[in-house]
From TrEMBL:
CDD domains: RNase_HII_bacteria_HII_like
Residue numbers binding a divalent metal cation: 9-10, 96
Cellular component aspect of the GO annotation: cytoplasm; ribonuclease H2 complex
Keywords linked to the UniProt accession: Cytoplasm, Endonuclease, Hydrolase, Manganese, Metal-binding, Nuclease
Protein name: Ribonuclease
Length: 184
């Protein structure tokens, strides 16, 4: 029976730039081919995204780099989980990972995004939303080449920060050893 479980996942917890995106998803119809978004090609994620939004009830929450810097990633995750649970009513919830960030009544499961269809669907909604948003930012800040690294702290991204400094979508609370001044 569909509609009994709301799967929840996030994308963009680790990058040093861009939004944290969280998605909750209740499947009303079966969607074939679901899996952990990281295990799918961009083309496959995009195709599944379109199927999911037609076959599901969902809620997407975004936290800006400023919100992450001001509140911390854990507080943002907790608020996102609470907002999803408030907006998507169902019998059960399941969050991918090993922490519910203090949200009572929220079970977790490591690698649920590859095991549970609703969490896989949430994973895809969050990842596609995150990646689409970062591509918009890439047009505003072409010098950082966000389209290549999606905001993650790759060698290329670190080199661009060294060259141009931080821009508006960087998380300043995320410290990178490669950007710290050396003492010698």
């Amino acid at each position: 029976m569909f509609g009994k479980l709301c799967g929840i996942d996030e994308a963009g917890r680790g990058p040093i730039a861009g939004d944290l995106v969280m998605a909750g998803c209740i499947l009303n119809l079966q969607v074939e081919g679901l899996n952990d978004s990281k295990k799918l090609s961009e083309k496959k994620r995009e195709a599944l995204y379109e199927l999911i939004i037609k076959a599901a009830s969902f809620h997407i929450v975004k936290f800006s780099p400023k919100e992450i810097d001001d509140n911390g990633i854990s507080i943002c995750l907790k608020r996102g989980l609470q907002e999803i649970m408030k907006n998507l009513k169902c019998e059960e919830y399941l969050f991918d990972g090993n922490s519910n960030f203090g949200v009572s009544g929220l079970p977790t499961m490591v690698k649920a995004d590859g095991k549970v269809a609703e969490v896989s669907a949430a994973s895809i909604l969050a990842k596609v939303t995150h990646d689409r948003d970062i591509l918009i930012e890439a047009k505003k800040y072409p010098e950082y080449q966000f389209e290549k690294h999606k905001g993650y702290g790759t060698a290329l991204h670190v080199e661009m920060i060294k060259k141009y400094g931080y821009c508006e979508i960087h998380r300043r609370s995320y410290k990178l050893k490669a950007l710290e001044p050396t003492l010698f």
